[in-house]
Amino acid sequence: MMIQSKKLAALKYIRHGFFTREGGVSEGMYASLNGGQGSSDKPENVAENRRRMAAALQADALINAYQIHSANAVVAEKAWARGEAPKADAIVTRTPALAIGVGAADCGPLLFADDEARVVASAHAGWKGAFDGIIESVLASMETLGAKRSRVVAAIGPLIRQQSYEVGKEFFERFLAGDPAHAKFFVPSARAGHSMFDLPGFIVSKLTAAGVEEIDDLGLDTYSDERRFYSYRRATHRNESDYGRLIAAIAVLK
């Protein structure tokens, strides 16, 4: 049902999980643990799936933001209803038993924890969010609650890997315009004018530059592992009408 980071699992006051697509009640293209409140899955199935996730985290509630591929991070002091969710791509909290989640289906789900301060965060880091500063926003928000980035443990969950992530010339040029050193995250594709992009490598570089010393990359590829993971790009390549969302979530224990 869920995969854990060894580094986060070793922490005393934290409970977390990178949930796979297994262990839920959804059917068809959503089978079976679809946590996507924005998908076209039956709302009652998504609600039951999310209830199971919250229970697995020993949490009273599981919340997500309304994700917009931004660098916005928000602090949550209590649970909110879906219709009240802020537009953001990261949530930070120190409230016990409140699971804060992100949905993904190729973008990078990141979980953060400072066990000493009992402050946690979840972030949705696609290429745009990572490029624009979501990681830096998360760490700054965690520090407002008493965390120290030198103590933070960060884990990178299932996301699209370089061997599955072909991009065009404009994408490559945008990264090089930001910093010529970004060329190291690209290798040539078999298709002329295209490259293969290393999203997790880019995320690790951003975490390291921001002062995070403990990083656990689970090394899992959403695109190539259909049994365990949903993938937006795989669904697009197959002309499917929709896709499920994987949930990564973390909570401070009571």
Describe the structure.
β7 (108-114) and β8 (119-125) form a beta hairpin. The longest helix has 14 residues, at 43-56. The strands form 3 sheets. Strands 4-5-8-7-9-13 form a 6-stranded mixed β-sheet. The protein has a 5-stranded mixed β-sheet with strand order 1-2-14-6-3, covered by helices on one side. It has a 3-stranded antiparallel β-sheet with strand order 10-12-11. It has a single domain (2-161, 198-252), classed as CNF1/YfiH-like putative cysteine hydrolases (4-Layer Sandwich), CATH 3.60.140.10. It has 254 residues and is α+β, with helices and mostly antiparallel strands. It has helices at residues 6-9, 43-56, 127-132, 134-144, 169-178, 199-209, 232-237; strands at residues 2-3, 14-19, 61-64, 73-75, 90-93, 98-104, 108-114, 119-125, 153-156, 166-167, 186-188, 195-197, 214-217, 246-252. The radius of gyration is 17 Å and the shape is globular. It is built from 7 helices and 14 strands.
Number of helices: 7
Distance, first to last CA = 22 Å
Q: Helix- and strand-based class?
A: alpha+beta
| Global Rg | 17 Å
Assembly status: single chain
Low-confidence stretches: none
User: How many strand segments?
Assistant: 14
Q: What's the main sheet like?
A: 6 strands, mixed
- CATH level-3 fold name: CNF1/YfiH-like putative cysteine hydrolases
The CATH homologous superfamily: CNF1/YfiH-like putative cysteine hydrolases
The overall number of domains is: 1
Proportion of beta-strand residues: 15-25%
Kindly state the percentage of residues in helix: 10-25%
The coarse overall form would be: globular
Strands of the largest sheet, in order across it? Answer: 4-5-8-7-9-13
